[in-house]
Design brief:
This protein is of the alpha/beta class and 331 residues long. The protein has helices spanning 11-23, 40-52, 70-77, 96-104, 129-140, 160-164, 176-186, 194-200, 204-211, 214-229, 235-245, 252-270, 284-293, 296-314, 319-330, and strands spanning 29-33, 83-85, 117-121, 146-152, 167-170.
């Protein structure tokens, strides 16, 4: 059974939540804010189980859910009557009927056997305006036993009145070293985590998915070949590389992130940085070649051009044309 000890890189949040469990004084509403893959659902599940755990705190190490009491076993199997996770009718939105039937109306019923009734609302940023207003009414006058955990990718998209009535906890990017250690424990045979870590940008869940993706490995190899070979490309080769990079528009942001991080490593080496601190630490030889080839001014200019390319694509400028211009400038 997962516990607080298994959650990586969220020490300050865990300290706050374990403090709540130990004090026995939970707020009526919490917002766990952060992008998908950062562990919001896991954290909400552990927090809910810890609050409902029937084992005395003296017998539980650092307020962890015990894992063996009736409450913990029910929660683990997904059958706990006092831990309710909202399941919307539609995958694209959370409607007012979802909030009314699964939260507003249900919260009027007292807990079955626990001291609290806990509601977890995943993907809360998908709530319609009517759904948010319905939830707000419950947050304004909640029963003493209710705890509502709102999971959001961007709390700024929620009604300010909802945010003001909740304790907001911001998920943090996980340190690259911690992600690397986790991936190596998970798969001792893994040989190169640099690409995964650079693309994940502190998101442990994303790093795990990328490490298991053959498609991602092919993408990384394609981009590596482009960035290491661009200096010697003729115009035809540049056009072909641009077509490759733009093949899947939905990957454009990740493609540009790769180039941005690559040239930041080049700049780091150019400035005398040490190899072990590189993001692409297994590519030091190629990065050193680039650091020798480009001037400081040119590297900074390329970094600016990559950021411009990102803005252009987000503004729906043709990706292939954008990549072709970028690669010509890199060359």
């Amino acid at each position: 059974m997962m516990g607080f000890r298994d959650i990586i890189g969220q020490d300050s949040i865990i300290s706050s939540l374990t403090g709540v469990v130990k004090s026995g004084k939970a707020a009526h509403a919490y917002i766990f804010d952060g992008e998908k893959g950062m562990g919001r659902k896991t954290l909400a599940s552990v927090f809910a189980r810890a609050l409902q755990c029937e084992t005395s705190l003296e017998e539980r190490e650092n307020a962890e859910p015990c894992g063996h009491c009736h409450s913990c076993k029910c929660a683990e199997s997904g059958s706990h009557p006092d831990i309710i996770t909202l399941i919307p009718e539609k995958t694209s939105s959370i409607g007012v009927s979802d909030i009314r039937s699964q939260v507003v109306n249900d919260v009027a019923i007292k807990p079955y056997y626990s001291p609290r009734k806990i509601y977890i609302i995943p993907d809360a940023n998908l709530m319609t305006d009517e759904a948010e207003n319905a939830l707000l009414k419950t947050l304004e006058e909640p029963p003493s036993y209710a705890v509502i955990i709102i999971l959001s990718e961007n709390k700024d998209r929620l009604l300010p009145t909802i945010v003001s009535r909740a304790v907001c906890l911001q998920m943090r990017a996980v340190d690259n070293g911690d992600i690397r250690a986790f991936l190596e424990r998970k798969d001792p045979e893994i040989t190169d985590t640099s690409a995964v870590i650079s693309f994940a940008r502190g998101n442990l869940g994303k790093a795990v998915l990328l490490s298991e993706s053959e498609e991602f490995k092919l993408l990384f190899e394609k981009l590596r070949n482009i960035v290491t070979g661009v200096r010697d490309m003729n115009d035809t080769a540049v056009s072909l590389a641009a077509a490759e990079a733009a093949e899947k528009k939905e990957e454009s942001d990740d493609v540009l992130s790769f180039f941005l991080l690559w040239f930041r490593d080049v700049l780091f080496l150019k400035a005398g940085g040490s190899g072990e601190k590189l993001i692409f630490f297994n590519e030091e030889r190629e990065l050193s070649k680039a650091a020798s080839y480009y001037s400081f001014e040119r590297i900074n200019s390329i970094l600016d051009e990559i950021k411009t390319a990102r803005s252009r694509i987000r503004s729906n400028v043709n990706p292939e044309n954008t990549f072709e211009l970028l690669f010509m400038n890199m060359r």
